[in-house]
Structure to design on (204 residues):
């Protein structure tokens, strides 16, 4: 439990400590569907994890150059897990959390009166913890991520932020009931899509 709290605090502080350096801040809701490839008993199996929650994104952007960078932090609650043909409802878990931090150089293109379109590609780090009666599992995932969306301007002070994040994790550190360390699964891979919608404000 202490480890989980430390990771969460570090991620939050890392995001909020940079607010003063960013031009825009966006907050909203996010839905996630992540698909894992796993070796279970020598067979390739698919694990699907769905989650929902909130996000905060910080932008730093130079209008004259059309480039900048963003930091995207997701705070989600896993809802359902499917492994092969078995489906597990996670609503009764003692603890369930899925936290993702993505940092990406970003390109922006003006859409005139419609607003702006942006695309960022960079690194992503993810922490997943699911604590059940029969299983306690903690996962740290590392890979590459992309964030793409549209900022639709409503006023000089605010905008609607709609888009999707995608990520592919290449490596996994896991702690479960009877395993602890880097995954040696030859089939391992995780791909996630997370559509989002939120409201942003100018802070600079």
């Amino acid at each position: 439990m202490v480890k989980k709290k430390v990771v969460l605090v570090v991620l939050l502080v890392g995001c909020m400590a940079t607010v003063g350096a960013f031009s825009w801040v966006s907050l909203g809701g996010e839905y996630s569907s992540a698909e894992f490839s796993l070796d279970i008993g020598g067979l390739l199996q698919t694990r699907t994890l769905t989650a929902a929650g909130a996000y905060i994104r910080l932008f730093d952007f130079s209008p004259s150059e059309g480039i900048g960078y963003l930091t995207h932090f997701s705070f989600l609650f896993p809802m359902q897990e499917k492994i092969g043909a078995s489906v597990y409802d996670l609503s009764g878990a003692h603890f369930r959390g899925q936290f993702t931090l993505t940092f990406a150089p970003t390109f922006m293109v003006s859409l005139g009166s419609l607003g702006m379109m942006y695309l960022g590609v960079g690194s992503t780090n993810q922490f997943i913890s699911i604590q059940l009666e029969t299983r306690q599992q903690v996962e740290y995932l590392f890979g590459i991520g992309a964030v793409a969306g549209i900022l639709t301007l409503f006023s000089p002070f605010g905008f609607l932020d709609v888009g999707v994040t995608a990520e592919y994790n290449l490596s996994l550190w896991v702690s479960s009931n009877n395993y602890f360390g880097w995954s040696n699964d030859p089939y391992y891979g995780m791909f996630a899509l997370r559509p989002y919608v939120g409201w942003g404000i100018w802070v600079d």
About this structure: Confidence is low (pLDDT under 50) at residues 1-22.
